[in-house]
Amino acid sequence: MEELERDLQAALRRRPAPTGFAQRVLARIEAAPAPSAKPWWRSRGLLRPNWRWAAAAALVISLAAGSALEYQRQERARGERASQQVILALEITGSALRAVRSQIARTARAQGGER
Amino acid sequence: MSEPQLDFEALLREHQSMVFSIALRVTGDWAAAEEVAQDVFVELHRRLDGIESREHARAWLRKVATHRAIDAARRSARLPKTDVEAIDLPGKARDGDALLARHLERLVAQLPEAMRAAIVLRYQEDLTPAEIAEALEMPVATVKSNLQRGLQLLRRETERTLGPQHGRT
Questions:
Q1: pLDDT top residue among A81 and B92
Q2: Would you say B66 and B135 are in contact if contact means Cβ atoms under 8 Å apart?
Q3: What confidence score (pLDDT) does residue B87 get?
Q4: Which residues constitute the domain of residue B105?
Q5: Fewest CB atoms less than 10 Å from the CB: which of A18, A25, B72, B73?
Q6: Do B37 and A17 make contact, defined as CB atoms within 8 angstroms?
Q7: What residue spans define the domains of chain A?
Q8: What is the 3-state secondary structure (H, E, C) of chain B?
Q9: Tens digits of per-residue pLDDT, B33-85?
Q10: Nearest-CA distance from A10 to chain B in Å?
């Protein structure tokens, strides 16, 4: 270490704080309005980084699971609607076929009577 | 591992001299230094829940005191007053040493803020350049450069005003 550096160390020794400094700090703190009571989730340290990450992860997982369930529900509803439409179409087709068949039978009977 | 609960008053008693001295050397003004030092401890009291250990408290106080003092020095936009002259030096110091110490203290108070803060943390607080870099939130290379340039300026000024024997290397 240079001599100048040693001189600097000697010159820059810590000074004692002014007389009554600590009392003045404590008086300022005493005079300051009391902070509002912390909510339970703050007082238990739930805003600490670990908890924040855990809460964020839980939120992401919940959102993903909720989205998947909603997607499944919508798919199921779509499937049910489609199967109902198929059944309706089959019923319409069946009744149309029955009508055609009875028309053919009536026509055949009429032609047989004429002969 | 974090300590269960830190005693604010004990921290105040233990570190008041460090915080006040940093503020005094960086602002160069007694009243501003007291104000800065009080603000720092009031802030510590508000944030005590986030302080994990006594070592953390010391590093936090050093860092916040330095930054607040630099801000105060910049806000005041004045050359630091050498209130430091009014402070009695340790009684055991010989006259020559006392004169040199007072002169050096005055010269340090006239350095640019970042350089002054680096010099104060290096020679008052005995921090390494890496620790200073962390406290000042600047690269270690910048801190080393500030220290080197600061020493050069101090040596040159000391030699100019007190003679070459005082700018010793």
A1: A81
A2: yes
A3: 46
A4: 8-166
A5: A18
A6: yes
A7: 3-114
A8: CCCCCCCHHHHHHHHHHHHHHHHHHHHCCHHHHHHHHHHHHHHHHHCHHHCCCHHHHHHHHHHHHHHHHHHHHHHHCCCCCCHHHHCCCCCCCCHHHHHHHHHHHHHHHCCCHHHHHHHHHHHCCCCCHHHHHHHHCCCHHHHHHHHHHHHHHHHHHHHHHHCHHHCCC
A9: 999 999 999 999 999 999 999 999 999 999 999 999 999 998 886 554 544 44
A10: 7
> Is B101 in contact with A8 (CB distance < 8 Å)?
no
Per DSSP, the three-state class of A19 is coil
Predicted TM-score (pTM) of the model is 0.64
Distance CA A77, CA A74 (A): 5
The minimum CA-CA distance between B117 and chain A, rounded to whole Å, is: 12
Does B3 fall in a domain? no
A19 CB-side CA count, 13 A: 0
- In terms of Cα–Cα distance, which of B114, B119, B117 is closest to B157? B119
Count: domains in chain B: 1
Which of B17, B22, B110 is the mutation pick for testing A, counting most A CBs within 10 A? Answer: B17
Residue B165 CA from chain centroid, whole number: 27
Distance of alpha carbon A71 from alpha carbon A79, whole angstroms: 12
Q: How many helices (H) and strands (E) does chain B have?
A: 7, 0
Structure tokens at B124: 């008052």
